[in-house]
Design a protein that fits this description.
- This protein is an alpha/beta fold and 574 residues long.
- It contains 24 helices and 13 strands.
- The chain is globular, with a radius of gyration of 29 Å.
């Protein structure tokens, strides 16, 4: 709400004199009465405006009370005096979203029929594409130019991208790939390695026609001081999305000289265009075919899907690719053979690392600002240093207006309700440790009582083998999101959302809809939450989301993992 006063509403300048020679007395009387009326209206305007300002000020004071998630292992707890954190948090969120959430509750209570296309995507256009990245048209690489080692950083999704990029670089340089290793992250705090998540034997065997892969360096190279001989390459040495020519020019000479190169970090360090056709296809082949979860993850993943669907016999169209033989062989006792329940998977990418990295504000005032600054100082030092130079960074308001802030849990639930998902919809929430904790999820659970997480559906005993392994737990979310009847993301820049959307596109056959919000348009809608009526809100949200459902080929330079509809990854049948 804008509390400023425009120039057109400013008071009349009392010092300005309008004199004309020969003026008439009756005209002067009318002019005097008009001035009195204008002055009275102006005074009334300022009185009303002052009351509005006081109301807004009260709202901002309440907004200063901020809550940090007590369940987040990665959050920084700051002491808060006074009432319990959960009470403060509920007050903040109710104040900010209360009106729209009340309208949402009323709309859901009416139990309207869901739109016909809610659980569908444009089938005819989408089904015209089929997977074909498994097709090869080249000879195996001998890997004669040396060995490439990769230590990938980030969480499971960033690591997955790094592995596939490393496979392509190994083929490009005619080198042998050592099974990738995963770097311990201060954010994710997981010691899992490649073999703890993916099937090593399948990975090696499936890609043997493409590249040579070994489990470790030959004995004669293990004793080398790679840093001393200049064979260690970090993300600092490689620009983001470097072209294949960069590796041929700068990395190949090191490889030929030292017989080994160790990439440390190796995040998103290979461009998506221009990349030769067969190398791009290899990239897709690695992501969609070569990386399969280990049996322990597949087994519990299958159990999770059965409980989500409330069916022991239903097999989804993507189950085979996700949980392998456990798709049919994991029928738990007591499971019924009736019709499976549909479920919507929602990825709430609203953990503290995303919230802090976004540089956005979420209504928590000074306390929130200090907490996120402290987190950035520890986990994103480069960003924290840049933050000190305020003139180089866009304001939180600008970031939000440009759609660069992740949707809050409240905004996500408002979007789903506006799209037409009814109160009985079964919603699986992926991602843990939501910033703000349980109070932030209160709006979701009160409006959608059939909201569940993997922690709700799996027992402590079933989850125990995955405790303290965030990447393995994320793999269960990955499975549940991909297999869902519909998937909704809240941040299109999230790696999990991107990989899930791409997987559903690749194997979905035009039957696996994904909701990709246009955050820029939604931001403009949400700013009107104090005045907009539900029917108008519903129409605008549906229009903003409907525009993202078009079936298009992969845009130039965009990720093949997220947009596999391109000739390198998928083939058109029509």
């Amino acid at each position: 709400m804008d509390s400023t006063v425009s120039a057109s509403n400013s008071p009349i300048n009392a010092n300005k004199q309008w004199r004309r020679k020969g003026g008439r007395l009756w005209y002067q009387k009318i002019r005097f009465k008009g001035a009195v009326i204008v002055f009275g209206l102006t005074l009334l305007f300022f009185l009303v405006n002052s009351l509005m300002l006081l109301s807004l000020q009260d709202h901002r004071i309440v907004g200063l009370r901020r809550h940090s998630s007590p369940n987040s292992s990665s959050s920084i707890s700051l002491p808060i005096k006074g009432q319990a954190k959960s009470t403060k948090a509920k007050r903040i969120y109710k104040e900010r979203y209360g009106r729209m959430l009340a309208l949402t509750a009323h709309a859901l209570a009416e139990n309207k029929r869901e739109p016909k296309d809610l659980w569908k995507e444009p089938f005819v256009e989408a089904s015209a594409w089929r997977p074909c990245a498994d097709q090869r048209n080249w000879q195996p690489s001998g890997g004669n130019n040396g060995y490439i080692m990769v230590t990938a950083n980030g969480g499971i999704n960033q690591q997955r991208v790094a592995v596939c990029n490393a496979v392509v670089v190994a083929r490009l340089l005619n080198s042998t790939l050592v099974i990738p290793k995963f770097m311990f992250s201060s954010v994710w705090k997981d010691v899992s390695q490649f073999g703890d998540i993916y099937q090593e034997e399948h990975f090696v065997k499936y890609l043997t026609p493409d590249i040579r892969i070994v489990k470790e360096l030959p004995e004669e190279l293990r004793s080398l001081d790679l840093e001393a001989i200049g064979s260690v390459v970090t993300d600092v040495d490689i620009g983001k999305e470097a072209k294949p020519s960069f590796y041929v020019k700068n990395i190949l000479p090191i490889l030929l000289k030292s017989k080994v190169v160790h990439f440390i970090g190796f995040g998103n360090r290979l461009a998506f265009d221009p990349v030769p056709y067969q190398l791009q296809r290899l990239r897709c082949r690695c992501n969609f075919h070569a990386l399969q979860f280990i049996p322990k993850i597949q087994q519990i993943g299958s159990l999770l899907l059965q409980r989500l669907r409330k069916s022991a016999v239903h097999v989804g169209p993507l189950d085979h690719y996700l949980v392998g033989p456990y798709a049919l062989n994991m029928k738990e006792k007591g499971g019924h053979a009736g019709k499976a329940s549909k479920y919507l998977a929602l990825h709430l990418r609203f953990e503290i690392d995303m919230v802090a990295h976004s540089l956005c504000e979420y209504g928590g005032g000074e306390e929130e600002r200090k907490e996120l600054e402290a987190y950035r100082k520890i986990h994103f030092p480069a960003l924290a240093l840049l933050e000190k130079t305020k003139n180089r960074l866009p304001s939180p308001l600008m970031l939000r207006s440009e759609g660069l802030c992740p949707l809050t849990p409240e905004e996500a639930i408002l979007m789903l309700a506006a799209l037409g998902f009814n109160r009985k919809t079964r919603i699986f929430v992926a991602g843990a440790n939501i910033y703000g904790g349980q109070p932030r999820l209160a709006a979701l659970t009160s409006l959608y009582p059939n909201l569940v997480t993997k922690e709700n559906l799996l027992s402590a005993t079933e989850l125990q083998p995955f405790s303290n392994f965030s990447s393995q737990l994320a793999a269960l979310d990955f499975i549940a999101c991909i297999a869902a009847d519909a998937f909704a993301m809240t941040d299109s820049g999230s790696q999990l959302s991107s990989l899930v959307a791409g997987y559903r596109t690749y194997y979905g056959g035009g039957r696996m809809p994904t909701i990709r919000p246009n955050k820029r348009r939604l931001a403009a809608i949400f700013t009107k939450n104090y005045t907009i009526e539900w029917k108008v809100f519903e129409q605008r949200v549906r229009k903003a989301v409907r525009q993202t459902k078009h079936v298009n080929k992969r845009p130039m330079a965009r990720s093949v993992y997220r947009f596999p509809r391109c000739k390198e990854c998928m083939c058109r049948t029509q």
